[in-house]
Amino acid sequence: MENWIGIGIWIVMGAVIALTMKAVVKNPDETPGHAVVLAVIGSFGAVIGGMLGVGIFHFTEPLALSPGGMISAAVFAGFMGFVYRWGVKGLI
């Protein structure tokens, strides 16, 4: 049960980090909206990053609430939010 709670925390943390990236990275020719898409991309990035962090740093005892999983989830969610805000959204 603890791992499911950790994954839920990754999802919420990823959405919050990605929406924070919306406030930090400004685009002058920004169209309104994209908050839901950005939250989903951040949540997806946090889950993938969290899994990678748990797999790399805590392979023998994989827990979602481990420091490696939480830190890598935050970093990858921030990276995915930044890439969407800075790069991919400019192409759409």
| Annotation field: number of helices | 3
- Mean of residue pLDDT? 81
- Secondary structure: helix percent: over 70%
How many domain units? Answer: 1
What profile does the largest beta sheet have?
none
Rg, nearest Å: 14 Å
Q: Which of globular, elongated, flat, extended, rod-shaped describes the shape?
A: elongated
Helix-strand makeup class: mainly alpha
**Beta strand count:** 0
SSE order: HHH
β-sheet strand percentage: under 5%
Unreliably modeled segments:
none
Instruction: Compute the separation of the termini in Å.
Output: 40 Å
What does this structure look like?
77% of the residues lie in helices and 0% in strands. The protein is mainly α. It has one domain. The model has no long low-confidence stretch (mean pLDDT 81).
Comma- or semicolon-separated keywords:
0% strand; elongated; 3 helices; 92 residues
Record the SSE blueprint.
Elements: H1 2-24, H2 35-57, H3 67-91
Describe, in short, the structure shown.
The chain is mainly α. The chain has one domain (2-91).
